[in-house]
Design goal:
By secondary structure, this protein is α+β, with helices and mostly antiparallel strands. The protein contains 9 helices and 10 strands. Helices cover about 45% and strands about 25% of the residues.
Length: about 250
């Protein structure tokens, strides 16, 4: 497993030691505001907003804060204005990195992203230098305790599912085309199959194996980017062996 799945697994294990719920809430609120600005404050008529609100609820964000963020984003309440910017860069060993941000100050954000990359043997790339190495997909995660692969195939295939696989966390990863994500979510909801998460993601078409000191450098870049308030999502095409993860206490 590599790329999106590898870092999600590592983050989950690291989070047990270093919870950052406040920062998670800050980023989700920004994401809600942008989704509401683009498609309105009613989740029933805004699929992107509905997905973000679902994620917010799973993270424990209160309905009061969710509603306020929706109204701010749609201009119904005064609030900050954020723009979405994607940065493309490279990490150690030539790892490709896609960085999605929501910012109210693009000069500040690009300076911070460039500093993080360059300080740890990486660099900021030009537009288009990295995006071609990733495909956009809808991704749903299901616990193996909640369902079976046969059940997922039977109930979700007609909704547009492209692939079902098992990851290192004993979970099923269900992928689909971005435009099919809402249909797959609705199909899961209709059959009462509870999912752990549902989101739009970027999946690498090729991966780069990292070893030795480049592992710690890459993890530092990912940690610092993840800790930046302006950065919403990070996608990278690195791969790390299970043995190296175990040596770091993350196996």
């Amino acid at each position: 497993m590599s790329g999106h799945s590898k870092w999600s697994t590592i983050k989950h294990k690291k989070a047990a030691k270093d919870a950052k719920r406040g920062k998670v809430f800050t980023k989700i609120i920004r994401e809600i505001m942008v989704a509401a600005r683009e498609g309105g404050s009613d989740p029933d008529h805004n699929a992107k907003l509905r997905n973000v609100v679902s994620k917010a609820k799973k993270e424990g964000l209160s309905m009061e804060n969710i509603t306020r963020a929706c109204k701010k984003g749609a201009g119904e309440l005064d609030g900050e204005s954020y723009e979405a910017i994607i940065y493309e860069g490279f990490g150690p060993s030539g790892v490709a990195i896609l960085i999605e941000s929501l910012t109210d100050n693009r000069q500040r954000t690009v300076a911070e992203v460039r500093h993080i990359l360059s300080k740890h043997n990486g660099s900021l790339g030009t537009p288009g230098s990295v995006s071609r190495m990733f495909n956009s997909k809808g991704l749903l995660i299901f616990s193996c305790e909640a369902t079976t692969e046969d059940q997922l195939m039977e109930t979700l295939l007609d909704a547009g599912v492209e692939d079902i696989s098992k990851n290192e966390e004993d979970q099923f990863e269900v992928t689909c085309a971005p435009e099919s994500l809402d249909d797959v979510i609705n199909a899961a909801d209709a059959t009462k199959i509870e999912y752990v998460s549902a989101e739009l993601t970027k999946i690498p078409t090729v991966t780069v194996k990292i070893e030795g000191d480049d592992i710690s450098r890459m993890f530092k870049i990912m940690d610092l980017l993840d800790d930046n308030d302006d950065v919403q999502n990070i996608y990278a095409n690195f791969d790390v062996s299970s043995e190296d993860l175990a040596a770091l206490g993350l196996g």
